[in-house]
Write a structure and sequence with these properties.
Layout (H helix, E strand, L loop, with lengths): L2 E2 L10 H12 L10 H21 L6 E4 L2 H15 L6 E5 L4 H12 L3 E5 L9 H7 L4 E5 L13 H11 L4 E5 L11 H4 L3 E5 L10 E5 L14 H4 L7 H16 L1 H22 L4 E2 L8 E5 L5 H10 L2 E2 L13 H5 L4 H5 L1 E5 L6 H17 L6
Parallel strand pairs: 1-11, 3-4, 3-5, 5-6, 6-7
Antiparallel strand pairs: 2-8, 7-8, 9-10, 10-12
Length: 379
């Protein structure tokens, strides 16, 4: 039996989203840009799908541009922001614990002459608003801060970042990678005060291959892809209507049940903490308070990748950090400056609306067996 506890990596496509994609592929498969009636039907459905995603986000439909994923949204937001601000400065502020989809574009900009300030977290992944305020300069053109860290679950002070930018009077645009926050913590782009915000479909029970970028009304970004003028002349290319339909269905339904789902995940997180700390000797919770769906723990003295494989052989799925690391050391856990044993033994457990107590119980048994069977490393 599969016990899936890696929902921060990806989520199972919910049946309603799969059905929406199937209908888009088999019934409403016309090109939304075509002028005849069949194409018009696809265009009307695309308009409704955009409204559904905007409704879940709490913004205007015209502020939502569909992309292929959160990584594309992040890359576009960063490149567009520095292009818009190139005459005002070449300074960027971000955090050392951002997803690679933010850090790698920033590093590329450094190679091209931009200066990047990487804010360092405390031992639980927190970045203080004062840190950000001190980092702002008159030539800062972009601040990029995630809403929820994908490995720790730490909720970062994006609202306070927006206030600090305004108080400093610097020209910076504020971008937020909200991939892990969407439908997990309550927010709207307006409440956060952001200019740009990225979300992804496969983190909310839609298929892989679809995401969106919120672009604040009145902000004119340079196009990501030039061509036929789709997506408001910002991202040309025929829209991926099946993925978008599934994304819209998942977003609409997720928004309707968000309060209940968040309560369920928070209860599971608390239950997991209680059971794990009581049953697994030496296990430590790294972030006691955070987003409801992410629980980072460590088994000091054990190699996390070995534990993950052992659990995987028993049908228990979790990770040693972001799925994008693929076995490489996590830059997030490294940034916390944990003792080596804690860093090497770090694990990420992540929940969703369909996770059960039985899944947690299986994890507790598996980790207890791992602690009993594996010889601790000399670290």
């Amino acid at each position: 039996m599969l016990h899936y506890l890696d929902n921060a990596a990806t989520t199972q496509v919910r049946p309603e989203a799969a059905q929406a994609a199937l209908e888009a592929m088999t019934q409403g498969w016309g090109n939304p840009s075509s002028v005849y009636a069949f194409g018009g039907e696809a265009a009307r459905q695309l308009k409704q799908d955009r409204a559904d995603v905007a409704g879940a986000l709490g913004c205007r439909p015209e502020e939502v541009t569909f992309t292929s994923c959160g990584t594309e949204s992040n890359n576009w937001a960063i490149s567009a922001a520095v292009e818009l601000g190139r005459r005002k400065g070449q300074h960027i502020v971000t955090t050392a614990i951002e997803h690679a989809a933010v850090l790698e574009p920033c590093r590329e900009l450094e190679r091209r002459g931009w200066e990047v300030t990487y804010l360092q977290p405390d031992s639980q992944g927190w970045i203080s608003p004062d840190q950000l305020a001190r980092a702002l300069r008159p030539d800062t053109v972009l601040v990029s801060m995630m809403l929820v860290n994908n490995e720790l679950g730490t909720i970062l002070p994006v609202r306070e970042a927006a206030r600090a930018i305004r108080a400093a009077g610097c020209p910076a645009l504020l971008h937020c990678d909200a991939v892990q926050g969407f439908l997990k913590v309550p927010f709207t782009p307006g409440e956060l005060g952001v200019d740009l915000l990225s979300v992804s479909g496969h983190k909310i029970h839609a298929p892989k291959g679809v995401g969106a970028l919120y672009i604040r009304k009145g902000l004119r970004l340079p196009p990501l892809i030039r061509g036929g003028g789709q997506e408001g002349n910002l991202r040309s290319g025929t829209e991926a209507t099946a993925q978008i339909a599934a994304f819209a269905a998942a977003a609409r339904l997720g928004a309707e049940t968000m309060e209940r789902d968040v309560a369920h995940m928070a209860q599971l997180r608390a239950y997991a903490v209680e059971q794990l700390t009581g049953a697994v000797p030496g296990l430590k919770v790294l972030v006691p308070q955070g987003a409801p769906h992410i629980l980072p723990v460590t088994l000091p003295g054990y190699k996390s990748e070995v534990v993950v494989r052992l659990l995987g052989d028993r049908g228990i799925c979790l990770s040693s950090g972001s799925a994008c690391h693929r076995g490489k050391p996590s830059h997030v856990f490294a940034a916390l400056k944990l003792p080596k044993g804690e860093r090497d033994g770090a694990l990420r457990i992540s929940f969703s609306y369909d996770t059960t107590r039985e899944d947690v119980d299986a994890l507790v048994r598996g980790l207890r067996e791992a602690a009993d069977q594996l010889f601790p490393t000399m670290s």
